[in-house]
Each structure stands twice: as structure tokens, then as C-alpha cells.
């Protein structure tokens, strides 16, 4: 390759997929394109060369939300598969058990949230069920979201 004074790169696609096209301008001012694989090996384009299409963005999932208040004795259960779960203890104590694990008392004035960033095609969700139990004098809120 002749000495170049300018160098540009572009990722293009052909019938085989993506490849790298390197453009240089040689000392005489002639544009010299060279093709290479994405790993840098020499490549000969096959078929029609075009700009690669961006992959389609997955649609935003539809979410359903719930809010439950438990005043006094009783249990609020959020089944496995939620996208987010939030507990706010207003008075007394809420006892929290996650996925059948050990129950943990959570005192008044505490707010806890569990959640995942992505759902939809990424398939993230909370794998455990959450059980929030109150006794006489307890007052707490439980909210959750899940994909529908």
C-alpha cells in the first residue's frame, strides 16, 4: 500500500455480513478503498455492499403495578417473577421472608426495594417470592411491578 495521508474506516455489510472498509488517499490524491474482516484480515466483498442495518430495538414491555397496605395481622405475598418489589414500614414491624428463606423483622421507618433493570427480551425478573407478614400494631405498604 502506498503511503497515505488520510485514513477513514467504515463498517459495511454484504451478502456474508459485516466487514471493514478502509479508505485512504494516496500521495497522488487517489481514493483507495481496501476491505478487511472485522479482525483485520484481507477480505473480498460478496454481492451487494450496503450500510449495515441497526438491529431493531426490542419493544418496551408493558408493566402492571400493585400497591397493598397491610394494617395489623396478615400477610402480603408477591409471587416470583416480579420486576420490582418495595416495602415501606409505617409502624410496628413487618417480617420479610424471601424465597422461603429465614424470616427477618424490619422495623418502622424502613424502606426496602428489590428490582431488576431490564425485562422484555432480556428476561430479567426477581426469581423469588416475597412474603411480608404483620402482627397487631403493624402497618406497612408493599408495591410491586411485573410484566404483562
UniProtKB/TrEMBL annotation:
Protein name: Uncharacterized protein
Organism: Planomonospora corallina
Amino acid at each position: 500500500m502506498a503511503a497515505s495521508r488520510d485514513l477513514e474506516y467504515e463498517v459495511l455489510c454484504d451478502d456474508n455480513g459485516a466487514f471493514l472498509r478502509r479508505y485512504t488517499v494516496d500521495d497522488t490524491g487517489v481514493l483507495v478503498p481496501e476491505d478487511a474482516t472485522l479482525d483485520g484480515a484481507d477480505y473480498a466483498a460478496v454481492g451487494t455492499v450496503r450500510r449495515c442495518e441497526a438491529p431493531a430495538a426490542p419493544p418496551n414491555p408493558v408493566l402492571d403495578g400493585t400497591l397493598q397496605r397491610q394494617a395489623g395481622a396478615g400477610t402480603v405475598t408477591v409471587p416470583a417473577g416480579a420486576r420490582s418489589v418495595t416495602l415501606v414500614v409505617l409502624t410496628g414491624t413487618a417480617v420479610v421472608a424471601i424465597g422461603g428463606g429465614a424470616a427477618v423483622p424490619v422495623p418502622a421507618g424502613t424502606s426496602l426495594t428489590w428490582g431488576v433493570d431490564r425485562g422484555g427480551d432480556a428476561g430479567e425478573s426477581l426469581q423469588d417470592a416475597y412474603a411480608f407478614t404483620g402482627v397487631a400494631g403493624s402497618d406497612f405498604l408493599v408495591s410491586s411491578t411485573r410484566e404483562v
